[in-house]
Design goal:
Layout (H helix, E strand, L loop, with lengths): L1 E2 L5 H7 L3 H6 L11 H7 L5 H8 L3 H8 L5 E2 L20 H5 L5 E5 L1 H5 L5 H10 L5 E6 L4 H9 L2 E9 L2 E8 L15 H10 L4 E5 L7 H11 L6 E6 L6 H7 L3 E8 L2 E7 L1
Parallel strand pairs: 1-2, 3-4, 7-8
Antiparallel strand pairs: 4-6, 5-6, 8-10, 9-10
Length: about 270
Amino acid sequence: MNIAANTKISALIKENPAAIDAIASINKHFEKLRNPVLRKILASRVTIADAARIGGCDVDAFYRKLAPLGFTVATDQTNIAMQTPETTTNALPDYLAQLPAQKLITLDVRQDIASGNDPFKKIMDAVAETGAGQALLIINTFEPTPLIAILKKKGYSYHTDTRSADLVYTYFWPENETIVAEPQTIASAQNDFEAALARFAGKVKRIDVRAMEMPQPMVTILSELEILPAGEALYVVHKRVPQFLLPQLEERGFKVTINEAGPNEVYLLIHN
């Protein structure tokens, strides 16, 4: 089988299962390949170039280990290894350093991987929830090189922080995003929220969307607003500030007062 930097690890294993031991022998980073759960999650998404990036080696190390198994290197190939994400330093980029703690969405996928579940869909759902002025932190046991490549193409910046051999923090946020002041229609202070709530005393409908899966919170809120009587307000209990919802409210002529009470506890009062 001819191989190149963009050959998937799964293709190598399918061609010759002995490739598992050969790759694992390159360095300790690839010992994870012996784990059938991690192999199931990673092998179909990771190329030789990706794996070289994760392991801190070059693709030639793979070629040398795979050659005795009958694999041959394709003669016509570009240096795809250079197209993989660059190593980042531990110093936080300015955007992350200035980001308020409550604007960081954290997703720990270590348990999913340990139990054999592919967290890709869960991660992409969290990415969809990460709007302007926010960032997503993925806690993992390895650097998610394929995910980084996917999100870079979608316009996301990233930063990796390797805490230990089995603990990697990877941050994602919309490219070229900067920290800006909240729109004037949003009041985050508790005093403002209580004052707004007092104005609608006896004319408030309350809903709790914290347990809903995406995109049900937004759908539910907009549906409730369609039938909200004039002069009344909708009180929403949410897990986070719904960044994608805010432009929708503005387009419909609604104002929103927000009280970020704590982690996973945000109150919104929406009214005309």
